[in-house]
Request: fold
Amino acid sequence: MTVAEHRIDGFRVHVVHVPAKTTHSHGSGDVSGINAAILELSTDTGLTGWGEASPWPVFTGTVEGSAAALHTYLRPHVLGADPVQVTRLMHVADSVLVGHFEAKAALECALLDLAGQIAGLSIAEMSGGISRTEIGLSFSVANPDFDADLEDVARLWEDGVRLFKLKTGFKDHEFDLMRLERLRALYDDEMGLRIDYNQGLAAYDAIRTVRDLEAFRPDFVEQPVKRHERAALAAITQAVDVPVMADESVFGVVEAVEGAHMRIADIFSLKIMKSGGIRRCLEVAAVARAAGIGVYCGCMFETSIAHAAGTHLAAALPELTLGCEFYMSTYFASADITDPRLPVSDGKVRLPQGAGLGVRPDPDALARHRIEFLDRQ
Ligand SMILES: [Mg+2]
Reply:
């Protein structure tokens, strides 16, 4: 049997801005919208594959950098290639461009979208098979106006959301304790409460600060100290009872190996934007599995395109029990660019159906939010 040849003959980057409903404060910076570089690959056989780079300047990089990485540095190596050659193309991407993990996540996603359409399989199926079709959704409580947050939490509770992550460390410790006390008093232990410092604590008194929070029975405390303060993170993990999650401290598999060796955390947060794609996240998950470290599926500020990619990753992970945070397209952004949107119902993210990614932009919505378009030079 001969397999039809497909060649990539179109490589377009749509830079979009989607405003948020409200500003979120995340310790390391305020966020008021989604800034993404959306990659559109097309083939000479009439297929179209989509991917998204959604950086956060204080965490992974900039949308301008992602757009340039895709358009200027990666495009010449992708045009003319067979989209099924995903591993080889991503190896080339790593060899011609250092870093820029969000751009590589976008490229990998668009390639996998095409490869899945060619194979008649979803990305989750091509990533080893589907372990779950729904994932518990965690919403981030991050509004400086806590009363407004309480209204959001009440509305999401009605929608069936039971996981809430409190962003801490952007005001004082008393503010954080007050919010934890209110949430526990209002929702008791029915609420899965998580805490994320986004590197916001000083290493010298992080242990006693985290110990103060343990009375509120959080599922985990995320990234209390700076990315590079790995010894401090290991010391906190050893000192406190609540599980500690590493987010900013573990981008890819090399940091995962080092982090596992130092036991810097009990859980690693997986994000396609920091690892450079779904398969790189699966490598981090494999290290975590070998070391007895749990995993969680986080994200940046993303549209449904990147959320769908993250959902395929989450669906392919047998050991994922802590949920995911792909809430932006449903609860944070004022609009989305896809049709259909990422399916969310009853507090759970649902795996998109169909071959490849399972979601794609609505042309009108994409045009409405596009601020720059990069095609052939
Ligand atoms: Mg985090």
Remarks:
- The chain has 14 helices and 14 strands.
- The first strand starts at residue 8 and ends at 25.
- The CA atoms of residues 111 and 284 lie 21 Å apart.
- The chain has a mean pLDDT of 95.
